[in-house]
Amino acid sequence: MLEVKNITKLYGSQRALDDVSFSVKPGEIVGLLGPNGAGKSTLMKIITCFLPPTEGTVSVCGHSIFDEPRQVCRCIGYLPEHNPLYTEMYIPEFLKFCADIYSLENSVKRVDEIIEIVGLTPELGKKIGALSKGYRQRVGLAQALIHDPQVLILDEPTTGLDPNQLEEIRKVICDAGRNKIVLLSTHIMQEVEAMCSRAVIINHGRIVADGSLQELKSNSAESLEHIFQKLTK
């Protein structure tokens, strides 16, 4: 279980997040939606222990971000928005480095498995710096999945992918979501409808909607995009 409880984050006098609460169960893929500056990336950084909240707390698989940050980090696979990578390294070299951080047994075998899962095989002879943006996203997703985490936090995971790559990465995320908790942010409503069973919409740091896609659309004949626009204007 991922439990976000009354999270508030202040930057000086600016309230980036304002009393945000929700929970996600295993098997759920939840889209975290909101306009630029709504607080999505800030919330993800708090969940992954990169930022402390001003108020509130987060529990990940029963571990508190305050009391057990190391255990929280072991439970989470995180793909941040800007996907920092060591561009001078080759793909297997980088993923082996990531696997060793988690002290994985049979790390070479796991690297081979994850390369196959995310479709990196055609690019194995290249350094990360020589990859297209789409393949760099695949490397970022591979490092998030390398230790088989219980929770996936994905910030704009499909950025830069062409339509064929998009279909493949959707499948990877959907397959992972069968038994993991997945929280992903995106601005693309089609991505939410293709992958997510539920959406949490944030505007000005507050949750303005939280429900299944069916629930959000139940009282309206409008598209999810139009519903989003109404809630975030």
What is this structure, in a nutshell?
The chain is 37% helix and 26% strand. It is an alpha/beta fold and 233 residues long.
Commentary on this structure:
The chain has a single domain (2-203), classed as P-loop containing nucleotide triphosphate hydrolases (Rossmann fold, 3-Layer(aba) Sandwich), CATH 3.40.50.300. The protein has 9 helices and 10 strands. The radius of gyration is 18 Å and the shape is globular. The model has no long low-confidence stretch (mean pLDDT 92). It has 233 residues and is α/β, with parallel strands linked by helices.
The rough form would be described as globular
**Based on helices, strands and strand pairing, what is the structural class?**
alpha/beta
Question: What is the helix fraction of residues, given as a range?
Answer: 25-40%
CATH 4th-level superfamily: P-loop containing nucleotide triphosphate hydrolases
H-E string: EEEHEEHEHHHEHEHEEHH
Q: What proportion of the residues form beta strands (DSSP E)?
A: 25-35%
Largest sheet: 6 strands, mixed
Number of helices: 9
**Mean pLDDT, nearest integer?**
92
Integer tally of domains: 1
* Terminal Cα span: 32 Å
Could you tell me the radius of gyration in angstroms?
Answer: 18 Å
**Order of strands across the biggest sheet?**
6-7-8-3-9-10
CATH topology: Rossmann fold
What is the CATH class designation? Alpha Beta
CATH architecture, please? 3-Layer(aba) Sandwich
Number of strands: 10
Low-confidence stretches: none
